[in-house]
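User: Working on a comparison across species. This one is HAD family hydrolase from Corynebacterium riegelii. Can you predict its structure so I can line it up against the others?
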Amino acid sequence: MIASDIDGTFINSAGRVTPRLRAVVARAVEAGAFFCLATGRPHRWLPPITDQLPFGPVSICANGAVIYDPARDEIVHAFELASSTMAEVIEAVEPVMSDVIHGFGVERVGRGEEFLITREYNPDAWDDRFGVVDVDELIAQPATKLLIRCGYLTSSEMFERIAPVVDGADAHVTYSMDEGLIEVSCPGVNKASSVALLAERYGVDAADVIAFGDMPNDLEMLTWAGRGIAMGNASPVLTSAADEVTDTNDNDGVAKILERWF
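Assistant: Here's the predicted structure for HAD family hydrolase from Corynebacterium riegelii:
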């Protein structure tokens, strides 16, 4: 089974799946391998990627909080944060972020508007692609992800502040890009946990899974898989934990590994 992150891994800097990568993944699937994408993206952001493939793989979205079947446009499973948990996380975060402007957002599935933010999350919000609400309305319903955004800190700087004050028994804290965005999901829910569910469904052992990634939200997946591959452009957190480091996403790093077998 092959599990791959998307941004910084499966697609290049132009947002494209290269012909070389598309061809080797197609050969792998034709040979009987299972393939899934595992991303921090919400499921509604998958079409630009899956439209470049000759098939629609069941995919792990929202850092493991959503399992989505694009071929059927169906949410297979969703792990959601309760409103009370999000309130506790926000209460814990506010004191350690009080010296910088920051805002909150949520990703929901199956409940009308799927992306809501507070005004501070994006002060330049002007269109109707998302709803702008206060915190009480933001967390009034369960969500697959709670987002914390700050334009004055990097994600790693935010993580150093936020991770210590959020109880891991209540929520999982990570980040998938370094532009001031922290992602919070259910405890124990990450890319690895949902890839493991898919592997069990397919009858594949962890030892027979190869996983690719580039950012800290890929860490659990790479360490769980029988072979974890960090991209040449990956965060040092991943390169030090991976079984192997391949070339960058702009130099067909994923394809170069898969071509050993397919």
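For your comparison, note: The longest strand covers residues 74-78.

User: Helpful, thanks.
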